[in-house]
Write a structure and sequence with these properties.
- By secondary structure, this protein is an alpha/beta fold.
- 47% of the residues lie in helices and 14% in strands.
- The chain contains 17 helices and twelve strands.
- A hairpin with a 2-residue loop joins strand 4 (155-158) and strand 5.
- Helix 13 (316-327) packs parallel to helix 15 and helix 16 (365-380) packs antiparallel against helix 17.
- The longest helix is centred in the N-terminal third of the chain and has 18 residues, at 65-82.
- The protein is globular, with a radius of gyration of 22 Å.
Amino acid sequence: MLAEVAGLRTLDERSYRTAAAIEEAMGAAGVAGTAYRHLLERDAASFQDLVRRVTVAESHFFREPRQFELLRRRMLPELLRDRSASHRLQIWSAGCSSGEEAYSVAILLEELGLADRADVRGTDISAAALQRARDASYRPWSMRGVSDARRRAYFRAEGDHLQLERRFAQRVTFEVLNLVADPYPVPSSGVGFDVILCRNVLIYLTPEAIAAVVRRLVGALAPDGWLMTASSDPHLSSQAGLEAVVTEHGVVYRRVPTTSTTVPGGTGTRNTSLTGGRSATAAASRVRRRGDPHAADRAARPQAASVPVSEVPRPEAEYVRATTLLAEGRWEEAVRAARSALYLQPDLVVAQVAFGRAALHVGDLAGAGRAWRQAQALLEGMDPDAPVPLAGGASAGRLLAELSVLNRRSAEVPR
């Protein structure tokens, strides 16, 4: 039911967590077994509660800060350059959980002087999470990505919580949405979203659900619109209509129309192709007409092209390839990709975990156990609150707790 209704995957390495979540949800509902299944079928709130328990609803402000720098330094400036002065930027946080990501975008927009030029929307399958988002009251753990200056400027202490200034709550619209089954929102521009953030969401979905959701997300983007996923999510370079753009702050995706299209809020058309890039000459011409010769020089510089994942600096590329192969059920290839990542960087924790997952699927129980024990040893040498590189903001302490369970289970399997 989790797979059919919400597209959630419950692979072998997550089965213990799923089972525990179901037991907790049954206990909270006061029913068990077949009666609980019947409850889920007729009560949407109970199903939302189960989804919340199965998925890791961990979030914090400015999670993966390099991506927010990319939003600040490249994505928003290019959108402002290519849209008309009257265009309102349309930004969607898909799978926003309790609102930290959507509010981080709203804070960034205010800092850039764009608060009155943008609409921000947050959606999630959990109504309870969205109520917390609307309350905009957070514990200090959600603040671990917030600088002291931002904390003083945008939050006020209320007991053991920090309350976000109410103006931000008034700038973000929240609504319940199942990315697998529900109709997608249409922005006020009627054209499409300029930016969609769907981070740390795809990693929970089945391969079939990923393909369907990404196809719909691409359809919801405006021409030249940006799609941002997390470093832990599968790579999407093979998805039709997307180009992978490699930057110093990571890989993001851009919708590339196959024909001439009208730029949302713009005054003309642009010819683009699936092989990527915009016309630097045309971009320079547009900004020259606006009377900014320096901007024309900037626009004429070569833009980052669409490149295959194999050209992303390794070993990160090999790890990303391993996670993509795992999502597609190509276990033996995933083993090779994860092994390649570890050859290049043996202390890459997420690659050790990925290798263990892949090895488990090909029957190499001893190899899976060794990889997980090595990952556990690496995590024990880290600050428990420190984010693990390429783990989507997950802390060393959280990953260590999960690996401890896996290591105990692998130790019980006869060699």
